[in-house]
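[job 0417] fold request received: Protein MROH8
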Amino acid sequence: MAERPPSPSRVAQEEDGAPQESSSPAEPHDVTAEQPLQLDASWLPMYRVKQKALDFLQDFARSPYQGEDDKRMFLENIIYVCRSALDTGLLEGLEIFFQNINLVEKIKMLLEEEPKKQLRSPVRELAMRAITVLSSVGTVLEGKRRSLLEACISSVFWLPSNKGMRQRNRYYSTTLDAMDVMLETMVFNSPPPRVVEELQHILEMLLDLIDSENTDVQMRAVERIGNLSYALSTQKHWPDDFRTKQIPILGQLLGRLLCFQFSEGKTKHSASRAFYYLCQFIFDKNRRISYPEEYYRKHLRLPVTFLQWCNNIRAQIKALECYLTPSERTYIMLAAIEAMQDSSTSGHHAARHFLQLAMRSPDFWLSDVPSIVRGIHECLEHTSLASDVESLDILLAVLAHKSPRELVRSMLTPTAPYDSTALAVWDQMYSQLNITSKFWMELQGRVHSPEEQDSELFSPTVLYAIRVYKVTLNPTNTEIADLLRDSQKCPKPEFLSLALTGLSNALESSEMARRLRFLLPDIVELLQHTNKVIRLKALRVLHIMVQHVGRNGASRMAVRLLQQLLPLFDDECTEVREYSIFLFKQLVEAAVCWDVWRMKRKARKGVMPLLLHMTEMSESVAQVSREALLSVAEILGWEELKQPIETKHPLDIAERLLERNINRVEEYLEQSWPYLQCPQTTVRETARRFTLMARWYLRDLNDDDNLSIVTAKSSDVTRESQSLAARVNRMLRALRLQRRLRATCRVLCCGCSCWC
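[job 0417] inference complete; emitting structure tokens
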């Protein structure tokens, strides 16, 4: 790439090439006879042409004070002298002269003296232009390139926000342009054997800045990578051995850029551009590793434009399969897994789509199983979305099918004691039904092999996972009971979660489900656990038991379980609410003749909660609530409720419910009372309207109570929900007091009549 010409200096404007006098000149020092010749510039061939410029450089390096004009003239003279030397070929001794006056250290010092939060002069720009031309003068920068780059980055990257600097500061854009030219020139002017090494160093420094918490620093780093990648992709003349050398940083860099490409931050577009040109650079290196030339010509016709590239993930994956090494493709996979931790919805979707396409070619993308398993570990620590967990489950299943031995070895690798993430991965494996039998055969062989019997080889986490597998493989009553009891004593709930998963697998047969019914009290107790995952898995274990114990056994279980499920209807977790209501419906339908009369009495207590949950914003919870309420209406013989339930009219259901059970109005009010403070607006509004409707069926209320309820109809629900609940509470206390007074009066009247 052609270097951008610098602004003309005052030195260049003079006819004889000498710089003009500074406003604060530095007095030159006389060179004594005892001083070595190399400390003076007069012996240089270039001295006869640019005497004043070289004298100024020497005097500036010795002067203890430098003004802003002196700094600018110093840097301009460096540029002018170097360019003149390159044009005339008078480079002899110039490198030694620069080293004697510590020129590179002086440039670094000037950069470090610049204020970090302000850009008030062109010193930064001139310094980077000076470094650019110095990279062409022998070995002046030898051993000092990295420190100079760090000084340049530190002086520019932590400036205030991009938008404000671009609009208000005339030096900002030219300074960044000068940095881009400097980075390109330092790569292209490196000795041929060190081109790859220099490029590796620059990309490493920029990669570290990509992970900065400062978004402005991220943006500037990604832009520099994009501009450098564009220069690399357009460069046609490389050393002969350049195409055969590997650049280790490329895979990591592509992976990080892919994360930004999936995100919704302000670096998205710049990252997409950098990713595109970096891929073009790799493709132009012609590293066709996996496919022959004929396949490339037939199938791998790359998109021509940047827009076509960004909108075609399939083309990206095919091209990356063709050109990247296995380690580089692994970095891409790890980046896609890491992108699932991003907060943006589109980032999750794009990452899942990329993984879905990549898993169609597991031989290319899933070669490094241990690294991918570690990536899954880290992702499970930071993501809770069901769709992301499902994608990771599929990825584990593909790994189990492709490389069962490597996957087992990776999962049996010693981990930290009580590693929650490792337990979560084992939990995912035990939970899946589509895991190939090769994985389980490999695991069984490793667990029972003589060399694996030594418990000191494994951490407590792996030992516990192996114990769960052994118990699941040959379950006995004692072992399963001990496993469930011991898991509740473990310091983390993931142990209990894994035990419940193993118990679910052991209950798949009807015989085992009937044999393990003695665990029912322990499982019911777990429904009150503080961890939502434990509550959900306990519900699933109960569901499997009900499915496999038969109609008679399920009927006996139903009578005992029904009451325990009602508190879970109001659980904070949507999945727990849905599953508990579904299990309630399953138990109601399982009742047989001799348990129906007891089932009716307990099922009535679920009518009001089910009615209110029909109006939830979660469609799955609302649907299962309607189905459960329909099952309750059927077992109670309430035929008139079926039609409004099917038509999804909760107020019609409430009206018919009050008409049919007028003696239970107080009970219904007590059940609906907590829902007046429900966080869901739809449920809270339905509870409020039911309360207003129920007042017509309470004949014993006085006018003040009726008025207080009626006025709540026109008030703001979110502001008045607590006051309305308090009024209903007072109303219910008044009803109980009236009932006790009537009962007392009846007793007294009966006693008086008998005495008479």
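[job 0417] notes: The chain has 41 helices and no strands. The CA atoms of residues 4 and 181 lie 7 Å apart.
[job 0417] exit 0
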